[in-house]
Amino acid sequence: MQIIDGKKTASDIREELKKEISDLFQRGGKVPGLVAILVGENPASQIYVKSKGKACEEIGMLHKTEILPNDISEEKLLQVIDHYNNDDKYHGILVQLPLPKHINEDKIIEAIKPEKDVDGFHPINVGRLVIGKDALRSCTPGGIQELLKRYKIETKGKHVVIVGRSNIVGKPIANIMVQKEEFANSIVTVCHSAAKDLSYYTKQADILIAAIGKPEFITGEMVNDNVVIIDVGINRVEDKTNKKGYRVVGDVKFDEVSKKCSYITPVPGGVGPMTIAMLLKNTYKAFKNLVDKNELYRYKKN
Length: 302
Hints:
Number of domains: 2
Helix content: 25-40%
Strand order of the largest sheet: 1-11-8-7-5-6
Radius of gyration: 20 Å
Structural class: alpha/beta
Order of helices and strands: EHEHEHEHHHEHEHEEEEHEHH
Number of helices: 11
């Protein structure tokens, strides 16, 4: 059994991007820019946005956090997005979810220019992915594929079983893995709560991606030997022996499943760190798509 170290892989990606961005800066060109829009005072959202900003700063990427009040109108939020859609300094726009209940999340996501949609949620990016066109892909699914790539895990013709059908992980990773491309080209099954016997499907998996949101749901009895396990879940469970009063576990019962698998992502330290790394990578990709190639290495004039 080999651990798939998402923390190290994410660090490697950040270092690669830092080098490329530094090269752009030293040669006088533009650098990528990301704006994060935070509505309200959700503590978890504040932590996520802060960590994204810190990651941008570490690699030399321009970053701004636009903090808006919880009672902002939908119309005003749309105006803010429109402003950044037309601001050439920022190549990626991220609206931190969830939004207050009086705001239509779909309408907000669709207001972001697809070419600046670094979360990969816009219907145009989703549609382009489905039909096999180049697109900005959702960060967590993109991170899963990146882990498979970096660990050279064979996917061609392999049976990938995905437990969960969310728009953030389950559906997009299914669409990625079915594509006729390297580190995809798989036979894909998507399972969900309507399955009468989930283990019937999970036992068939060469690669099992668990994104169901239930702590330690996948047990050793539900998988075959040598399976590759990608655990997307992040769940808090009570643990009185821990001074925090809880511990973080995935959707997979690690102690049981790790004895049978060939590769496995731990929780924490597996898929989680890859999400921000792929957000940075998406922003860099959006930057390259948006900026005139003649301007990338434009020397400064004395």
